[in-house]
Amino acid sequence: MHVQPLDDENQAAVLKFLRRAPYRNGILLSNVTQLRSQCEVMVATNHDQIIGVATHYRPLPFMNVSFAIEHKDILPPLLEAMSERVNALQVSRISALLPEIRLQQLLPFVEAESLEFELQMAVEPETLRAVEAPEVRRLKKQDLPLMNQLAQDAGLTAWVDEVLDVGPSFGAFADGRLVSMASTHYATTDVIEIGHVATHPDYRRQGYARKCVSTLCKTCFGLAPRVYLMVVETNTPAMATYRSLGFQPIERFGMISFRLRLE
User: Fold this and answer.
1) Which pTM does this prediction carry?
2) pLDDT tens per residue, the chain (263 residues)?
3) How far apart (Å, rounded) are the C-alpha atoms in residues 155 and 74?
4) Fewer CB within 10 Å, N or C, the chain?
């Protein structure tokens, strides 16, 4: 087995490997295409066949990794190579949002500190239920200070200022202020993840987030054939809202925090 960084020569093969499961590999697909310049990507091969990919996205305010592997024995050398490239991974707490099958691959090689389950929910163009939303409009660069303030007021933890650079965002306005918004974590031609869904505490449970998500999804389907979002498994009200828009659960993921167990 050989581990090396992603480059122009192996990118096409990496994409073919990841596109076998575009929903499950959505984060990885974004990190090797749209967000490539902001990521570290390591690729494992065996006899010139791709057998594993690991990525680290630099802009997030916490250490993070994601990976896809053919079998669990690939993971230790892949993580070791990534930690040599990103030294902070060797000593920091790391977060990863992984399908359950990959959690089981990871756990033997790390010291887990916390774990929370989320559901990946997807919607199809045919199942998306449109919502009338005259108070919702597309957000632009000049709205970024309002978005930053709303992200802070709503307690978003993975917010990045570059949100408008990676995909469309829509916001709802009331009383002359931005009270709710929905954005994307990434928007590739394969799949788009809806994220940064936030509503000011004073305006919750009034349907604003539902309207933002519905309007955003309509735009996203003009960019990619697959749209999904993640919701904490215990957040029953949010799940009900997304079901009402036509989303259905497709896979269970775990948000795990851990430390590498390096030899």
Assistant:
1) 0.94
2) 999 999 999 999 999 999 999 999 999 999 999 999 999 999 999 999 999 999 999 999 899 999 999 999 999 999 999 999 999 999 999 999 999 999 999 999 999 999 999 999 999 999 999 899 899 999 999 999 999 999 999 999 888 888 999 999 999 999 999 999 999 999 999 999 999 999 999 999 999 999 999 999 999 999 999 999 999 999 999 999 999 999 999 999 999 999 998 66
3) 37
4) C
Q: In DSSP terms, which residues pair with 41 in a beta bridge? A: 55
Q: Which residue has the tokens 């691959």?
A: 105
CATH number among 1.20.1180.10, 1.20.120.450, 3.40.50.300, 3.40.630.30, domain 2-116: 3.40.630.30
Contact 158, 195 (CB under 8 A): yes
Task: Tell me the CATH architecture of domain 128-246.
Answer: 3-Layer(aba) Sandwich (3.40)
